[in-house]
Amino acid sequence: MPGKPYKIEWRGPLHRLGGLGHASREYVKALKRRGITVHSGSARRTAASGLLESKRGMKVLIYHYPPHTLDMARERRRYGRIILNAVWETSRIPARWIPAINEFDAVFVPTRHNVKAMRESGVRVPLYIVPHGVDTAVYNPSNAPKPIQGSKGRFVFLSVFGFQHRKNPETLLRAYWEEFTDKDNVMLVIKTGGYGPKQTGEWIRSRIARYKASLNIPHKTAPLVILTGLMNEKKLKGLYTAADVFVLPTRGEGVGMPFMEAMASGIPVIATAWGGHMDFVKPANSFLIPYRLKAPAASMKGRSAIAKSFRHLFADERQRWAEADLRKLKELMRKASRNPALCRAKGRKARGDMLKLGWDKAGSVMEKAIDSVIRG
């Protein structure tokens, strides 16, 4: 509300594509809608000036970059409070981050999964759950479906993810190819993209084709559509409503924003039953895949490792993430395809649940958390 005894500088990846950049932008807008003074920028180091206190009150820095990249001693001379806004996907955060995180006044994280990972890694400073939101006006069941060639009359599975190992494209593809033949009236649509100029759409398709060949599948498989070009929000929202169910056997999510977008669009999700998305993905609105917790490095070798690994983040021997049960994933995909009415019912429940998780709520929770840090 107006008259807050502080002003915020938000320093984060505001111009970045993907979930981190989107979350940064939406948090800033949500705080501004609440009448809070927020200055924002994408540079990790900014030429902040002035004293800790001013006529507008205390200066608070919210830092939405990796914690070890902040010069804490330098920034302590400029800000009365310094808060980390962070998200993490595996059971533990990188060990090199822990000393840096414990220099912050507090950490804002979006889910209970993040709290558990940080506490068990040795983070001692106060932790506040500040959830992500989803724009339920943009992602809406009434959106016109995006035309997908060959999809008419078929049950459409959709998956949206960056082409990285954590997202587990291998298990998704194997389950689909092994479970469905060209006689099944289904289609899998994957919207994905690589990391860096060398990981083009052609590169992704070649990796997928080689993986399929290595599996020696004995039958002709059901159709697969791979979309790798940039897609604006207008096209993406129509992609969700063109599908009957969203599926992603992810190994770990800090939040899982595509899950939220799909559910807001009125379609249920088939998801691994572990990770940050479990704050809102429930049996009533989704299909949950059993899993086993394993060391990430174990699955980064061999023919099934077709996507970017990010080993520098996810190969610590103490870390664990979820390996989805392949057999159960097949069963759930088959069950969904045979029960479109069940999918519609779960989708309606998913839509109702997402109506409670807008960005305005996220802004309200963050405001209260900032107030608490200031008082502390």
Shape: globular
Instruction: Tell me the series of helices and strands, N- to C-terminal.
Output: EHEEEHEHEHEEHEHEHEHEEEHEHHH
Main sheet: strands, sense, barrel: 7 strands, mixed
Uncertain segments of ≥5 residues (pLDDT<50)?
48-52
Quaternary state of the chains:
single chain
User: Can you tell me the CATH superfamily of the largest domain?
Assistant: Glycogen Phosphorylase B
Number of helical stretches of at least 4 residues? 12
CATH T-level topology of the largest domain: Rossmann fold
The average pLDDT is: 94
Specify the CATH class of the largest domain: Alpha Beta
CATH A-level architecture of the largest domain: 3-Layer(aba) Sandwich
**Residues in β-strands, percent:** 15-25%
- Calculate Rg over CA atoms: 21 Å
End-to-end separation in angstroms reads 19 Å
Helices and strands: which structural class?
A: alpha/beta
Pfam family, one: Glyco_trans_1_4
EC number: 2.4.-.-
Protein name: Glycosyltransferase family 4 protein
Enzyme class: transferase
List the helices and strands and how they pair.
Layout: E1 6-11, H1 19-33, E2 38-41, E3 53-54, E4 57-63, H2 72-76, E5 81-85, H3 98-101, E6 106-109, H4 112-121, E7 127-129, E8 155-162, H5 169-179, E9 186-193, H6 201-215, E10 224-227, H7 233-241, E11 245-248, H8 257-264, E12 269-272, E13 286-289, E14 291-294, H9 311-314, E15 321-324, H10 326-338, H11 340-354, H12 359-375
Parallel strand pairs: 1-2, 1-4, 4-5, 5-6, 6-7, 8-9, 8-11, 9-10, 11-12, 12-13
Antiparallel strand pairs: 3-4, 14-15
Helix pairs in contact: 1-12, 5-6, 5-10
